[in-house]
Amino acid sequence: MSDLEDRLTDLRPLPAPTDLWDRVTKRPGSFRVAIATRKLPGRLVSLPKDALLWASAAGLLLTLYVILASTPEVAPAGPAAAAAFPQEPSTEVLEKLRAYPHKILCESNRDGNWELYLVGMDGSAAVNVTKTPDVDELYPKASPDGSRVCFAADEGKPDARVRNLYVMNLDGTDRRKVADNSREPCWNADGTAIAYLRAEFDKFTFSDFATKGIYIYDLKIGQTREHPNNSKIHHLYTLNWSPDGKWFVATVHGGMGFKHGILAIEAEGAGVYDLGLGGCRPDLSHDGKQITWGHGDFAVGVADLDLSAKPPKATNIRNVVESKDPMETYHTDWSPDGKFIAFSFGPKFKGKNLKGLLPEFPGVEAPGWNVCVADVSQKNKFAILTTDGKSNKEPDWVRR
Q1: Backbone angles phi, psi at 167, to 5 degrees
Q2: What Rg do the C-alpha atoms of the chain give, in angstroms?
Q3: 3-state SS string over the chain?
Q4: Alpha-carbon gap, residue 31 to 45, rounded angstroms
Q5: Nearest in space to 72 (alpha carbons), one of 367, 370, 390
Q6: Degrees, nearest 5: CA angle 163-165-170
Q7: Closest by alpha carbon to 244, among 305, 317, 167, 166?
Q8: Range 76-398 has CATH code 3.30.750.80
Q9: N or C end of the chain: smaller count of CB under 10 Å?
Q10: Phi, psi (rounded to 5 degrees) for 345
Q11: How far is residue 133 from each of residues 37, 119, 129, 137, measured CA to CA in Å?
């Protein structure tokens, strides 16, 4: 998570300009109240002093209005994108992918509605696998065998919106609800259970870390159980389940005694360990021996992971991809054979959007963002799979 996200989470903004004016005029002790109640002395007004006072007030109001009322601007994606990497996208990686059997699922907003798309490596058109114009599907996670996908779905009218979890076959059939008011799902190794995070509040929010507790849904019997240490688990996001079933790995933000970090959490116990990785949104390799994550806003990090150590530790930390401001790298995901990492790549928003709607959040517009694939064996060797920039993000590999 970026420094901007850290600052935004402490703010509770109101729409401008109406609420801005209410805040300035109605808050006790506000400037306007002070002026309205001030008794002027029986003498001529001191023009320089009062003019300076009014000018300062006008400047304050203008500054607040700009901060609260401005909408995010997208950083230019043309020359800036071309210069973001030390070199051009790799035709070598693209040729390797042409014969690669696996595919990628991602969320995308191509016509005003979020859908899940299946992207092949051969350059063929992406396929919409959800096709629901009245529901926004997000955050796809393919089952270990590639036959099914679990995902989040934002449903309902804006004033009664809720994010629920579903599972379905990859072709869109047999769609079933997993949980209400929940998010950030992941699979166990044999595809028989889905772990997820319950939303912290009943009211809808885009903030991915607004969660409380880990829950496990058994697909065979249709029942849900809680993590044994749930009373102490909150503000996690990007949940992963280790192949041996013994660990969860996730980002924490402002919770569980941590300001921000990537944690290893015992699946059946109370142990919680900071892996010491700067950044967020981790993903475990299919053998559980490596981890990738967003190493800040502009790099894809990779490290060796030993969850059997006491405490668990990440070593040999390095970057596979390094970008430059303003082009960000997020949502990393290991390929089934560990040879490639998929990631989202696109421009950050300029200025401060006080609603917290940052492009890396699931379901938030990300103009200019595309799905890329990097060769893990070489630095900054990558291919760009999607090219329309229509909020293509949250990639997840599908085994074929």
Answers
A1: -135, 145
A2: 24
A3: CCHHHHHHCCCCCCCCCHHHHHHHHHCCCCHHHHHHHCCCCCCCCCHHHHHHHHHHHHHHHHHHHHHHHCCCEECCCCHHHHCCCCCCCCHHHHHHHHCCCCEEEEEEECCCCEEEEEECCCCCCCEECCCCCCCEEEEEEECCCCCEEEEEEEECCHHHCEEEEEEEECCCCCCEEEECCEEEEEECCCCCEEEEEEECCCCCCCCCCCEEEEEEEECCCCEEEECCCHHHCECEEEEEECCCCCEEEEEEEEECCEEEEEEEEECCCCCEEECCCCCEEEEECCCCCEEEEECCCCEEEEEEEECCCCCCEEEEEEEEEECCCCEEEEEEEECCCCCEEEEEEEECEECCCCCCCCCCCCCCCCECCEEEEEECCCCCCEEECCCCCECCEEEEEECC
A4: 18
A5: 367
A6: 130
A7: 305
A8: no
A9: C
A10: -145, 125
A11: 54, 20, 12, 10
Q: What is the pLDDT of residues 346-399, one digit of tens each?
A: 998 754 443 668 999 999 999 999 999 999 999 999 999 999 999 999 999 999
**Cβ–Cβ < 8 Å for 149, 118:** no
Q: List the Cα angle 298/120/115 in 5-degree steps.
A: 75
CA end-to-end span of the chain: 32
- Tokens 């921000």 sit at which residue? 260
Whose CA is closest to 395, among 196, 43, 106, 89?
106
Sheet with strand 247-255: strands edge to edge: 236-241, 247-255, 258-266, 272-274
Spatial contact of 102 and 400, defined as CB atoms under 8 Å apart: yes
Q: Rounded to the nearest 5 degrees, what angle is found at the Cα of 364, between the Cα atoms of 386 and 188? A: 75
Report d(CA 102, CA 197) in Å as an integer. 28
User: Cα-flanking dihedrals φ and ψ of residue 209, to 5°?
Assistant: -90, 0
Residue 56 reports pLDDT greater than 80: no
Question: Of all residues in the chain, what percent carry a pLDDT higher than 90?
Answer: 73
**Order of strands, edge to edge, in the sheet holding 327-334?**
327-334, 340-347, 370-375, 382-384
Are 159 and 170 in contact, with CB atoms under 8 Å apart?
A: no
Tell me the pLDDT of the chain averaged across its residues: 84
Tokens encoding 108: 């995308």
Tokens of 196: 């997820």
| In the chain, domain spans | 4-69, 76-398
pLDDT of residue 1: 53
